[in-house]
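Instructor's aside before we start: the two examples that follow are unrelated to each other. I chose them only because their records fit on one page, so don't look for a connection. First example below.
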Amino acid sequence: MTPAFHDRDGGLFAEDVDLTALAEAVGTPFFCYSSAAMTDRYKALAAVLDPLGVDILFAVKANSNQAVIATLAAAGAGADVVSEGEIRQALAAGVPARRIVFAGVAKTAAEMAFALEAGIGQFNVESFAELTMLDAVAREMGRVAPVGLRVNPDVDAGTHEKITTGRKENKFGVDIAAAPAFFAAAADMAGVDARSMSLHIGSQITQLEPFERAYRGLREMTLALRAAGVTIDHLDLGGGLGIVYADETAPDLNQYARIVRDTVGDLGCRLSVEPGRFLVGNAGILVCQVILVKPGETRDFIFTDGAMNDLIRPTLYEAYHAIRPLRPRGPAQARPADIVGPVCESGDYLGKGRYLPTLEVGDLVAVMGAGAYGAVMASTYNSRPLAPEVLVAGARHHVIRPRLSYAELLARDSVPLWLTDQTVDHGA
C-alpha cells in the first residue's frame, strides 16, 4: 500500500495530489489531511476489535473538523465528545446521537440539557457533584440520563505529564475505590441510570502494559459491583493509543486486542474505545513556506510562515514533529537549523536542531504528524489568521475550512460608540 504522504516526481504528494501545486492553489500555511490514511487506521483497529464486539468512538477533541468526523463516521466510527460544541460538530457530521458519548471533567447544566435533548448514548460522569447536577437537570426535563462513571485507576501511562490523566493527582474521574458509593448514590436518583464504567489513562501511549493494569482494575471493580447487586453492562476503555512521531515503537494492535480480550472480554459487557490521535495524527501535515533564512553562530534559523499559533504542540509539549522539504535540494546539511515562526515568542518553533537539506526563501516544508491537536488547538495570536484545512481523497481535494481573512478577523471585534463617535462627551 502506498503511504498517504509519499514522494513522486521529485516532490511530496498527499495520495495523488501534488502538495506543491496545492500550496499554490490555497496558499501557505495550510493543513492537509488524507482520507485514506484515516480510514486505513480505522480499518486496522476495527479488524482486531470487531471480533470482540468493541465499538470505536472517535475522540473528536483530536480534530473536530466536520469533514474529518464524517470521514471516520462513514468508516464506522461513533464519537467521544467533551463539549456541547463537539456534540454539535458530531451531529452535523452525521454521527447518530445514540453513538455519541459525552465525556469531559466539568460539564455545564446547559450542556447537559442540550445533550439530553439530542438523545446522546451516554454521559461519562467524573464526580459526585456532576452526578447530582445531571440528575437535577434530567428530572427537570422529565428525562433519564444514561450514565457511566469515569474511574481513576491510579495508573501512570508513562507519557508526558500534561497528557497523562489516570493518576490520583490528576483532575479526572473518581477514585476507583469510590465506585460502590457512586453507584449507590446513583441508585437513589430518579434522573440517572448508571450501568457503565469508563476510564482514560492518558494520551500518546505506545507501551501497552499500562492499559493491561488499568483494564484489570476495571475488571475487578466490575465483578465487585455485580457481587453487590449493581448492574454493569457497558465498559468504556478510553483512548490513548499512540503514534510514531520519531523513533517510538508503534503499539501492536493484536497485542492490544489480546489485552482487551483477556481482561474484560468475558464479562458480557458492551465494550467501547475512544481513539483520537491514533486515527488522525499521521493522517495530517502542516505545509509552510520559508520566508527568511538567518545564519547564527552555532546554527541557522529557518523562518517559515507557519508558527506556534498554527501548531502549538512543540511549544506546549516539547513535542517532536518530523520536518521535510517538499522538494529537497540535495542531502542534509552538516549545520543544524531551528525551524521557527515569525511570532514574537522565544517558544515559537516547529523544530530545533534539525539537519535538513539546504532551504531557500520560497521553499516549502511539511511538518509531519499534524493531523491531531494541530488546527484544533490553533489560535489567532499576533493577529495571525487561522490556516485553512484541506482534505484529500485520491486526486481530489477540498478546502474543508477556509483561511480566516483579515476582514473576518477584524469583524470579530466591536468598538464601543464612545471610542468612535467624536461628539460623545467622554467626561460625562
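Example two begins here.
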Amino acid sequence: MKVIVGLGNIGDKYLKTRHNVGFRVADVLAEKLGLSFKDSTKLLSKTAKNTDFILVKPQTFMNESGRAVRAVCDYFQIDPEEDLVVIHDDLDVILGAKKNQKGVGPKVHNGLASIYQHLGTKNFIHLRVGIDGRDGNRNIPGSDYVLSSFRPEEEKTLEVVIEQVAQDLLH
C-alpha cells in the first residue's frame, strides 16, 4: 500500500495558491479513484483510501506537515523509505515541469523540513511540481510568492501538469 501525501495549507484563502499544489493533485487522484476524503483528527489529516492507496492531506499548516505524515505512517505501519510519496510545490522547478526523485527536494521548503524532522529521513519519493513562473524576476521573496495565486494562463499549464502527475501515480 502506498501513502500519497499532498502538501498544502488549510483554509479557503489558500485554496488556489502555489503552495497548495499537493492538495490539488490529491483531490484529482481521489476523483479518479472514486474516493472521498474524510477528516481524521487522530491522523491530523483528511484521508481517502482503498486497497492500493492512502491519500493524505495534512490538516496542520504547511510548516507542521511532519506531525501528520508521522501519524499516518505510524498508524498504517508504513515504511516511508519504501511506501511514501510526498507531492509538493517546488520553486526550484519551472511552472509546467515536474520531477520525481527519491530523497531530493527543493533547497527550502518548510513543509518538507517538518517531514524530515518527524520521520528522521529524506529518503522517500518527492514528487516535485514546478510553480516558478517568475521568468527570472526574483523581486518577490519566495515565502510571499508561494502564497500567491496562479495567473489564469498559469492555471491552464498547472491543470495539465496536475493531470500528468495523477496519471504517473496511478500507473
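The helical segments are 21-33, 65-75, 80-83, 110-119, 142-145, 152-170.
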